Amino acid sequence: MKRSNRIRVLLNQNISREDCSFYIRNHKIDVPFALHRHEFFEIDIVISGKAKSNINGHVYNIEKGSILFFTPADFHDIIPIGTQPLETYNIAFPTHMIYKQIWTFVPMSCRFATLSPANFQSAVLVCQRLMQAYKNPSPSTELLMKTGIEWCLFLLADAANALSDNVQFPKDISAVLAYIYDNFTGRVSRDEAAAIMHVSPIYFSNLFHKHMGLSFQEYLLNLRLDFARRLLIGKGTTVSDAAYSSGFNSVTYFSRVFTRRFGCPPGKYAEQNSL
User: Fold this and answer.
1) CA angle at 163 for the pair 157 and 164, rounded to the nearest 5°
2) Can you say how many angstroms the Cα of residue 90 is from the centroid of all Cα atoms in its chain?
3) Helix crossing, 251-262 with 266-273: angle to 10°?
4) What is the chain's percent helix, strand, coil content, to nearest 5?
5) Cβ(7)–Cβ(38) below 8 Å
6) Architecture of the domain delimited by 171-273
7) Ramachandran category for residue 23: left, alpha or beta (phi over 0 → left; psi -120 to 50 → alpha)
8) If DSSP codes are grouped into helix, strand and coil, which group holds residue 222?
9) What's the confidence (pLDDT) of residue 174?
């Protein structure tokens, strides 16, 4: 079992999938944590303190009982509030570690929710047990981590269901979205997405468009463009870096579709919006 201390990375930096199979830590943050993203899925459970977090351009107030969920497509920062550090259990994991059917229950549109008191206590107890297993690995550690992470995902789903503004996707679509978010910077296949739902590619295309309001390819393109746009606001990111890091094979094509989507070329956008 290979550990990594590089799960959190600054904007425009990446880590390879070989760096980590899963990770959990008790994290205390007492200074602002810069905008960043990572190549894994992540759950943060806040156990004390307060902070503001900018998640993909939306600012949330987080405190004890908050649960946050991030995909590899998400950018976020953390700004502690007050004198008490923000303390969290931070869990990072790849999609392949999770039983495929679990993804059908995960609220893929939800990035922030509040756990009920009972579910918060349950999450803390699970994280404490996972911390013990992670620090003292045994042959059962990976299975225990897998089970605990899946339970935290169920708690997230329960909390998200209480949000009136949470977008609900059909269960099989959520599993497809997990596949897209995990692979959007590389090869994404409509046929593989259809196989997740156990339907034909043509039927899948119609079903996806019905529920998402976009075709599969349009959704993927928009996700890549939004990701590239966030990369471009980071200092030192070139247009070609943004293009290839977002899954585009051609800088020319990227520049054309970016301009059509955002109204100006990517280079000009970076000049006007760079942090």
Assistant:
1) 135
2) 13
3) 60
4) 45, 20, 35
5) yes
6) Orthogonal Bundle (1.10)
7) beta
8) helix
9) 87
- CATH topology identical between 17-160 and 171-273: no
Cβ neighbourhood burial of 164 (10 Å; 0-12, 13-18, 19+): exposed
Separation in Å, CA 73 to CA 29, 87, 181, 225: 23, 24, 6, 11
Task: For the sheet with 41-48, list strands across it.
Answer: 23-29, 86-93, 41-48, 66-70, 112-114
- Domains of the chain, by residue range, sit at 17-160, 171-273
pLDDT, position 26: 94
Percent share of the chain, pLDDT over 70 = 89
User: In 3-state terms, what secondary structure has residue 141?
Assistant: helix
Q: pLDDT tens digits, residue range 172-191?
A: 788 899 999 999 999 999 99
CATH code of the region 17-160: 2.60.120.280
2 has a pLDDT exceeding 50 = no
For 204, the enclosing helix (H) or strand (E) is helix 201-212
For the chain, the C-alpha Rg in angstroms (whole number) is 19
Residues in CB range of 81: below 8 A, 6 or more apart: 49, 50, 51, 52
What is the pLDDT at residue 95?
Answer: 87
Instruction: Report the share of the chain in percent with pLDDT over 90.
Output: 69
- In this predicted model, what pLDDT tens digit does every residue of 90-133 receive, in sequence order? 999 988 888 888 888 888 888 999 999 999 999 999 999 999 99
Q: What is the pLDDT of residue 30?
A: 93
